[in-house]
Amino acid sequence: MLELTPGQGELIGDSADRTVELLAELDAVHATLSRFAPGRDGADLHVHRGHTDVFVVLEGTLTLKVEGGARTAGAGTIVLVPPMVAHGFRNAGAVDLWYVNLHMPGTGFGDYMRGLRDRRRVPFDQHDPPAGGAGLRPADEIVIAPSPVALGATPIVLDADGTVTVGDHLRIRRS
Questions:
Q1: Domain 2-172 homologous superfamily, CATH
Q2: What are the record keywords, sorted (predicted)?
Q3: Each residue of 133-165: pLDDT tens digit?
């Protein structure tokens, strides 16, 4: 199992309103630790065709943009967004949002984030929602739940001390 703490990864971006650190690039999971300041937008509506997007909310509130509205996930919750569910996200709250973002299985998310940082296009499983909604799964398939949550046979656990464990693949200790 890969064990990490913040600061051991690759800094993708660090500004007053956003910090992103790439922590892991494993076949099973790519992981980042992110901080978004109040009012900071993340991604616009998009879909992933071949992987699940997971947000583990450590502090603050994640506002998930979905077709027709928004859903929120507070600290201590885990959000599973299945393939072909249109989603985006932002920090609509009044305090910093800290979250671990997992892409399962690992699908080149690390290279995609480096490409955004370096202003170069890198192919990645992130697409505009299909015209007319063809093939989309409904937003109510998104799971927002307290820890633990299972993605197939892989449990995702957020401990009270902020440690995130992804099956036997990865453990991220908050300090």
A1: Jelly Rolls (2.60.120.10)
A2: Isomerase
A3: 889 999 999 999 999 999 999 999 999 999 999
